[in-house]
Design goal:
The chain is mainly alpha-helical. It contains 17 helices and 4 strands. It is 73% helix and 4% strand. This is M48 family metallopeptidase.
């Protein structure tokens, strides 16, 4: 059997595994609460607040979608014309055209071009977010964040590109097998490492101070049977007024993080409600599920790239001989950008179902639908979320059920509709 036939077989096996795993672990049946409940919830929100959040999103949309379209265009130009390959040759020239220099420096050059082109739109988004008072950042702080995220991306990207092209260099026929295993392993490793290595680059995390709230949160976790060593507070207020909480990491790096803004903007009861939602993620092993889905997905992506590499027409557009050579980085960017846009709605759909399950967990654990609903209203108001966004936008991009869907779910739960 040829390597290509093996790759096709492995691809089929992995796709079946991904579908089977997703079918088994994603809570597909958690459809949103009845539309009538959603509309009733919407009717009870203050009209001026709803109007303000809608005006905010209307102003944000051109910059957001413009940025998306521009990112796609840059990727297509760098990937489907010889321009990307030319850029990578230039980046590797000072190092004697060595493949490793082309891989790392060429990759950075490609990403830098894409970042610089989309920079004006990112700045435009910041002006809107700042004008509505959601961002507390000056241009200085905003620029520092931008440089930090480019730095983190550069380090991670350099590791990934150096690893990938070392494998394609050493095993030109079988790189897809090593690459797929490496990509899956990297996703698992990052799940452990990102919370403790990357998150602190952007925020300071301190244990929540002793007091009634901390005691109550730890008691809640105890009652839920979820081992939590600590509840951390992130200094999000130096960047935003938005409130949030999340759970990240696996095993010993698992932590529940509450934004400091949450402690000043929300009541203690609402913080407990949010923490109960986060405990739901921990109890249902949502981070682990996401990691396994991500690992399978990235292994599939590597093999699909390998198979796509036998498409001569695509290679000739990019002016490269093989998809496994560093000059093809632009083509890799184009293919992954398009694949990301196509996979986005499916990922969002899965995420919304998982979030709905965590909401039900919070309701069951606290038994307090009224506070849960008040918390959703608070989250929506402070974060300027559109409580009932256009359905196409919700389907394409929303990672969480909308505010009115979450309020309606609490009402249905209180009625005994579980
Ligand atoms: Zn959640």
């Amino acid at each position: 059997m040829s390597p290509r036939l093996w790759a096709a077989g492995a691809l089929v096996v992995l796709v079946v595994a991904l579908i089977g795993f997703a079918a088994a672990v994603v809570p597909w049946h958690r459809a949103p609460a009845p539309r009538a409940d959603q509309l009733a919830a919407l009717g009870q929100l203050p009209a001026d607040q709803v109007a303000r959040s809608r005006a905010f999103h209307a102003e944000l949309r051109p910059a957001s979608y413009g940025g998306m379209v521009l990112g796609l265009l840059v990727a297509l130009v760098l990937g489907l014309t010889p321009l990307g390959a030319r850029l990578i040759e230039l980046a590797g020239r000072p190092f004697g055209d060595h493949w490793l220099a082309r891989a790392v420096l060429g990759g950075l050059a490609v990403v830098l071009v894409a970042e610089l082109v989309s920079l004006p739109l990112a700045a435009w988004r910041h002006t809107v977010v700042a004008r509505y008072g959601l961002s507390t950042q000056t241009w200085g702080g905003w620029s520092v964040d931008l440089l930090k995220s480019f730095g983190v991306g550069a380090v991670l990207g350099a590791i990934v590109l150096a690893g990938f092209f070392t494998v394609t260099h050493l095993a030109p026929r079988w790189w897809w097998a090593f690459g797929a295993a490496g990509a899956a392993g990297l996703v698992v490793l990052l799940s452990f490492v990102l919370p403790v290595v990357v998150e602190p680059v952007f925020n300071r995390f301190t244990p929540m101070p002793e007091g009634p709230l901390r005691t109550e949160l730890l008691a809640l976790a105890d009652r839920d049977g979820v081992p939590v060593k600590d509840v951390l507070v992130a200094d999000a207020s130096r960047r935003t007024r938005a409130v949030n909480a999340y759970v990240s990491g696996l095993g010993p790096t698992r932590r529940i993080v509450v934004y400091d803004t949450m402690l000043t903007e929300a009541t203690p009861g609402e913080v407990v409600s949010v923490a109960a939602h986060e405990l739901g993620h921990a109890k249902d092993q949502d981070v682990l599920t996401g990691t396994i889905l991500g690992a399978l997905g990235s292994a599939i992506a590597v093999i699909a790239l390998y198979l796509l590499g036998s498409w001569q027409w695509l290679l000739s557009l990019a002016g490269v001989e093989s998809i496994g050579e560093p000059r093809a980085i632009g083509l890799l960017l184009a293919v992954t950008t398009v694949a990301g846009l196509i996979a986005g709605p499916a990922q969002s759909f899965v995420s919304r179902r998982v979030e709905a399950r965590a909401d039900t967990h919070a309701l069951t654990l606290t038994g307090d639908a009224a506070t849960f609903e008040a918390m959703q209203r608070r989250l929506g108001t402070v974060n300027l979320s559109d409580p009932d966004p256009p359905s196409w936008e919700h389907a394409m991009f929303a990672s969480h059920p909308s505010t009115v869907q979450r309020m309606a779910a609490a009402r249905a739960w209180a009625r005994g509709d579980r």
